[in-house]
Recover the amino acids of this structure.
């Protein structure tokens, strides 16, 4: 196919408020480099990390929750550490989720890949000297909030599924984060508490934990309890209620905040706590006696083994997990989509339609 010279995209021009998201029609279309593929993007989705990167919440100067200044940005957030890996180069095209078709390939990539339907792995292998660097799609490199994007060949995984692009695009970021947490915890047929269970990652964790035979307790607001039961949660609880002491083998926490010490009390001796988010605030109080007297394991989960995403694609193709898309917006209305996302009145994902 003949590629256009320019494309439509939403470009992040710096850390700050929603005004930092600019709709453009004149962004040059990428050309795939050696070992890369060019994808025509059909759909993406909104994730917490898109908002947190835009606002600069990852900066250590920010000590509050992720929502209190999410519309206007955080005063005092430093550009030097406002994203996952520190400073970002602006302008940046965000969008950690991406689904559709390979339309061109670079040198060294089999031309038979053209026409394949793919999902993009959000967590990429660092190309530089630091093997521990965080390189994520839509953050350290341009992502899916555009009509076209490029990724290394290995990160575009072929997908065979009857699901729509918008349904498939709900999986990559949220489900790989949840699957990464579960694999780090070594979760089996155990009792697990999931906080923030109605969000994209939390609702994904419910499905993925049930797939492993776990007994799942989901913490959420009353309005979202029935939805989580429908996803397979064995028990649901009001997020403001008291957690059962020593009632869980594993805690998958996306909330943090002032109630964090209660989560350690909720673990059995030798229990495992895993975190991959802190929507209620990143600064918590730790009583070291609870940690060492109960022989607890505290696990942070961001980096992912490549098998996390390959396992996820296999689950999708087998129909073992299901998309939860509650609303969709066209790309040009990304600001409105983020505003709806920040209301936290939904369960699951808000999709972004790119094509058309």
């Amino acid at each position: 196919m003949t590629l256009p010279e320019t494309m439509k995209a939403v470009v992040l021009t710096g850390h700050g408020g929603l005004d930092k998201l600019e709709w453009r029609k004149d962004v040059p279309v990428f050309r795939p480099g050696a070992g890369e593929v060019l994808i025509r993007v059909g759909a993406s989705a909104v994730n917490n990390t898109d908002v947190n990167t835009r606002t600069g919440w990852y900066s250590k100067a920010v000590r509050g929750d992720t929502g209190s200044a999410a519309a206007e940005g955080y005063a005092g957030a430093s550009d030097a550490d406002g994203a996952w890996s520190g400073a970002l180069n602006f302008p940046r095209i965000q969008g950690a989720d991406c689904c559709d078709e390979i339309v061109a390939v670079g040198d060294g990539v089999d031309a038979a890949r053209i026409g394949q339907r793919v999902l993009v792995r959000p967590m990429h292998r660092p190309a530089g000297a630091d093997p521990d660097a965080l390189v994520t799609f839509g953050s350290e490199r341009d992502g899916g909030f555009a009509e076209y994007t490029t990724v290394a060949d290995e990160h575009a995984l072929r997908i065979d599924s009857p699901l729509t692009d918008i349904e498939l695009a709900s999986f990559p970021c949220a489900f790989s984060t949840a699957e990464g947490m579960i694999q780090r915890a070594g979760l089996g047929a155990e009792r697990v508490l999931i906080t923030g269970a109605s969000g994209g990652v939390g609702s994904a964790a419910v499905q993925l934990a049930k797939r492993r035979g776990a007994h799942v307790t989901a913490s959420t607001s009353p309005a979202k309890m029935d939805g989580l039961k429908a996803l397979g949660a064995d028990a649901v609880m009001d997020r403001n209620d008291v957690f059962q002491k020593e009632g869980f083998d594993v805690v998958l926490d996306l909330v943090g905040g002032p109630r964090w010490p209660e989560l350690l009390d909720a673990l059995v001796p030798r229990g495992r706590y895993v975190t991959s988010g802190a929507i209620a605030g990143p600064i918590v109080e730790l009583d070291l006696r609870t940690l060492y007297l109960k022989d607890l394991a505290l696990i942070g989960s961001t980096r992912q083994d490549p098998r996390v995403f390959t396992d996820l694609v296999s689950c999708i193709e087998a129909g073992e997990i299901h998309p939860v898309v509650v609303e969709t917006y066209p790309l040009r209305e990304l600001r409105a989509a983020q505003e709806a996302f920040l209301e936290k009145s939904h369960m699951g994902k808000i999709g972004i339609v790119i094509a058309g």
